[in-house]
Amino acid sequence: MAALERQIFDFLGFQWAPILGNFLHIIIVILGLFGTIQFRPRYIVVYTVWTALWVTWNVFIICFYLEVGGLSKETDLMTFNISMHRSWWREHGPGCIRRVVRPSAPGILDDYSYVSVTGCIIDFQYLEVIHSAIQILLSLIGFVYACYVISVFMEDEDSFDFIGGLDTYCYQQTPLEHVELKPVKPVNVLCLSTE
């Protein structure tokens, strides 16, 4: 649900890289749930590997919005350099007052406008960081749960007993009759003595 909520806000902000990541995340979560319900450990392994990648992606988003390591939130990296859109939270955050200012200079297109945002309770970059931190927390919980489910599935797979197997509880046929063992008659060996 958290990924779906994030997907909606990324669509509103035309953030194409997060949209693609969220879409893959939703598909892999569905695959992991299917693997849990259908007792398919391989699907759950795919989910655990994806979870590690998802945590890495969210750490990158945190670094991007906090401008760590030379990253800048003012670049068009999240839109694949297709558009000038930024995070939807930039103009629509809690308490933000959005004002559209039309340019007065001649030669500028009429549909082009400047947006002034003031009065935000929390800046947009911190909202994006909070979203990513929640995703990391949920992913770590999902990773631990997936590892547990895989171990349970593997334990159940190892303890499965086939009919006629080597287990002590396997089906044994009672013998029809008791076989009597007789000693073998010794063969007469000719011994030569030197007496």
UniProtKB/TrEMBL annotation:
It is a multi-pass membrane protein. InterPro entries: Na/K-Atpase_Interacting. The keyword Transmembrane helix applies. It is found in: Cell membrane. Keywords: Cell membrane, Membrane, Transmembrane, Transmembrane helix. The gene is NKAIN3. GO terms for biological process: regulation of sodium ion transport. It holds the Pfam family NKAIN. This is Sodium/potassium-transporting ATPase subunit beta-1-interacting protein. Belongs to the NKAIN family. It comes from Pelodiscus sinensis (Chinese softshell turtle). GO terms for cellular component: plasma membrane. Its main location: membrane. The chain crosses the membrane at residues 16-37, 44-68, 133-153.
